[in-house]
Every structure is written in C-alpha cells, then in structure tokens.
Amino acid sequence: MNIKKTVQKSFILIVLAVLLMLFVFPFIILLINAFKTNAQIINSPISLPTTISFNNFKTAMDIMSYYNSFINSLFITVASVTVIILFSSMTAHYFVRNNTKYSKFFFLLMVASMIIPFQSIMIPLVSIYGQKLGWIQSVPRQTLIFMYIGFGAPLAVFMYHGFIKSIPLELEEAAKIDGCNQLQTFFKIVFPMLVPTSVTIGILDILWIWNDYLLPSLILQNAGSENYTLPLAIRVFQGSFSSDYEKFLPAVLLVVLPVLIIYIFVQRYIIQGVTQGSIK
Amino acid sequence: MIHTNRRLKRMGNKLLFTGPAIFSFLAVVILPFLYGIYMTFFKWDGISSVKPFVGIKNYLEVFRDYDFWTSIALTFKYVIATVILINIIAFILAYLVTSGIKGQNFFRTIFFTPNLIGGLVLGFIWQFIFNNLLVTIGQKYGILLFSKTWLGDENKAFWALVIAAVWQYAGYMMVILIAGIMNVPKDILEAAKIDGAGGLSRLRYITLPLMVPSFIITIFLSLQRGFMAYDVNLALTKGGPFGSTVFASMFVYNKAFVRFNYGVGQAEAFVLFFLVAAVTLLQVSISKKMEVEA
User: Fold this and answer.
1) Domain range spanning residue A92?
2) Cα–Cα distance between B265 and B276 in angstroms, integer?
3) pLDDT band with cut points at 50, 70 and 90 for residue A239
4) Could you tell me if residue A34 is inside a domain?
5) Structural domains of chain B in order of their starting residue, each with its CATH number
6) Touching check for B35 and chain A: CB below 8 Å?
7) ipTM above 0.90, yes or no
8) Residue A186 located in a structural domain
9) B18 lies within 8 A of chain A by CB
10) Which residues contact B266 (CB under 8 A, 6 or more apart)?
C-alpha cells in the first residue's frame, strides 16, 4: 500500500514538473535571450547568454520612451481604479439603502449591460467621442480614464452591492444619531468595512487596465507617442525594428517585469481576487 | 420651506452618490450601444459629412458578406478548440495540484502567471518562439515539424493561436476549478473509498458531477474570451498568413477602422454580439441542468 502511494505521488510530481516546464519555458526563453546580441539570438536561442549586458535595455528604453509610457500607464491605471472604487462603492451603497425604482432600474441596467462585449460598441464609441465631440483629439488621456470608469462601474457596483447587503443597518443608524451626514457615515463607517471587496476590485481592474490594448489603441492612436501606454509603446518594435530581437526582447521583458515583481509579493491576494471576481 | 430643503438635500445626496458612476456608465456603454443601433441604418465612411439613410441594406450586406461568415466560422473553430483544451488542461492542473503533494502553492502560482501578462505582449513572446526559436531548433536538429515557421502556414498559424490561448488561460481556469474541487465534501469521498470505489470512479461519479457549477463558470469565461479574442490574434499573426487567421473581432475592427465601412461594420459587430449572447446563454442553461446536489 505504501509503495503504491509513493509511486503514485512521484508520478504526479513528474507530470507536474513537465507541465511546469512547459508553462515557464516562454518566460525563460525571454529572460535568457533578452541579454544577447542579434547574432547570438538567431544562432543559439536556447543557450545561456555568455555575457550579460544591459546596453540593449538602455537602447530599448529610449526607442519606446519607456519612462514616459510607464508613467502614462501608471497614471491612467491609478486614476481610473481610484475613481471606479470610490464612485462604485458610493453608488452601490445608495442602491442598497434606497430600494427605490430608480435604484432598481439602474442596478438592473448595469448588471444586464455586462454581457455587452466591448467590440460590439467600440465603433459607435469612437464615432461619438472622436468625430462628434472631439474629446479623443483634445483630451485623449482624460477621455480614456472616463471610459474606464464607465466600463468598470457595472462589475464594481455589482460586487459592492452583494457585500453591502450583508452590513447591518444599525451601525449606520448609530452614526447618524451621533450627527454624521450621509457622506460622513459612508466614509467613516461603511467604506472601511468594504476594504476586502475594494482589494478584489482593485486587483481585477489594475490587471485589466494596465494590460489593456484595444481601447487605448483606439483612443490614443493619433494622440502622438508621448501619450502612449506601455502596450501601445512596445508596438514600435514591430515596424522598423521587426527582426531586431536584441532590442525587442529587452523591451518585452521590461513591460512584463513590473507586473511579475508585484505578483511575487502579493500573489496570494491576486489569485484570490481574480477567483472571487470571476465566481461572482 | 423645511420640506423643500430636505427634498433638495435628498436629491443632492442621490446625485452625489450615484451621479458620477451612472453618468459615465450611460455615456460610454448605453449611449454607444443605442447610437450603434442607429448607425447600422446609415452608410458612413467615418469622415464625410454625408450620411445617407440606407434602411436595412447594411444588414442585407452582412448576410452576403462571404468573408465575414468565413471569419465567424473560423472563430467558432477557434472557440471549440480553445474551450476544450483550456478546460481539460485546467482540470488536469487543478486535480494534480490538489492531490496533496508538496509545494502545491508553488505550482499554482506558476501556472497562474501567464494570465498576468497582457494579450499583446503575450502574443509577441509566442511570435518570437514560433518565428525564431522553434525554427532554429527545427533546422539544427532536423525536426521537420518546426523547420519552417508555423506562422507562415495557414493551418499551423491557427494552432499557434490556440496554443498561446491555452497557455494564457489554463492557469486562470485552474484556480476557479481548484475552488470547485475544494468544495467537494470530504465525507462523501471517504464513504465511497470505504465502499471500495477506486480513484478513477470517485473522480467520475463524485468529483466531476459535483464540479459542474465550476465548469459552468470556466466554460462561460473561455467561450466569451474565445469569441472576443483580439490582442493575441493581432500580436501573433496579424490575421495572416494571407488573411487566413482573421477572427471576428479583428474582422469587425478592420471593416470599420481600416476599410471605413462603419455601417456594415457595426451591423456585423451586433451580429457577433447576438451570436455570443446566444451561445453563452445556451451553454449556461444546458449545463445548469447537469448540476447535482451532494
């Protein structure tokens, strides 16, 4: 019996190890080739680099204006996620505590709208905010943030709604008796209790917005490269530098790295957040 | 006076609490959706100020658009391949990492990692693998399968896209399925074991049927993502070679923003939306019937 178990366990371990190799292999390939020259990459893409040079990283960063694009990505992500969390939690709170026709209607509308895929409204979206209002031309980044708020609100309101329902009303009534108005009650009593949900929503939305390509490409396309986010900026290597792997691969690594570093530290929360977000 | 004041205050609270979220939601989801319907009845190139009303002509054109339906058929093929492969591999991963071996958290963390990378960059990584790495290995060691780039062959380019999608999503679906496996009551499994049920029959008759709710989620998510695939499609093949891997999203994109046929493009975007909605609703309602209680 014991032998059978050991055999079984080692078999599982071997299968897992093989699968693990298949999953990590693209990362390893990226890592070892990012430090090589073009000749080395083309001749022996699986060998380890003989020398480690960061020169190509410097060039790659210059070509794609890495700092600038990084700041753009960071600013757009942080601004959008902060506003989504703030306004969605307030909206969900109002919906739960004021069970009126108004609340029911907009809550249902938001939930129902979640089945609309972005691709089926992107054409009118660009027509309205580009050709009609001209926002895409005049304030591209702000328009993008505004859109993220609109697209992010339904899921966030839905998730907060589910959680706020479980908060006892007595706490808020007590605060009201102590002289808090609705806004103070919300920020002093309710919002601190929503932290777990806010973390989940924050993780989901940060991953989504940081990595998003299609929407920013539609909005920032013609706004000049000084407005680009990282996924847009890296496209520069696909044009004139297309087989220049010694610059392209460091660039890819630089785009992937920030997320991976954060993942190492908070992987438990990220996996938890993503699971909860999709189960709901 | 006091009465109106209180009403004003209540109105102000309502606007303050729900105004910003509802306004931005209406402005970027509902308004474009409605305007999209309106657009499908006009012929427009996206620039000119002339926008002739054409009635249902755009929709008729959608049904005659051979390339669109080719793209839809290809997308269906892609969805079928990815949904099956992603879910099988995700289940194998979930089953193995919950079998009580050491370091299961480590395995879980690694398998989930590809999901953190954006589709575009992920496509670039696989582009390097298929265009360069595998070709070099294939030519060096005489492996015929890899000696020419997969992305230059119509059929192999399709499977390259499938492989990239499986790599991207298997770990994500795995974590959802792990939650499902954890919810299978231990006492039922113990009871079956005592009754002499082997590992495989416990899997077949207890674990899998009780995991149906988790599979509903993972199949739903992989269906949706498959139908809407764009980023990896763009980064890995750009729809090539010779336009053989243009999935529905890219087709709609090109129709409007490359060929400037906004009316027909939007009509096709809605057709795609209805197809996806129909398939996912059908999937959920069918699989709900397969749910069992412990």
Assistant:
1) 63-279
2) 17
3) low
4) no
5) 66-289 (1.10.3720.10)
6) yes
7) no
8) yes
9) yes
10) A123, A124, B36, B39, B40, B58, B256
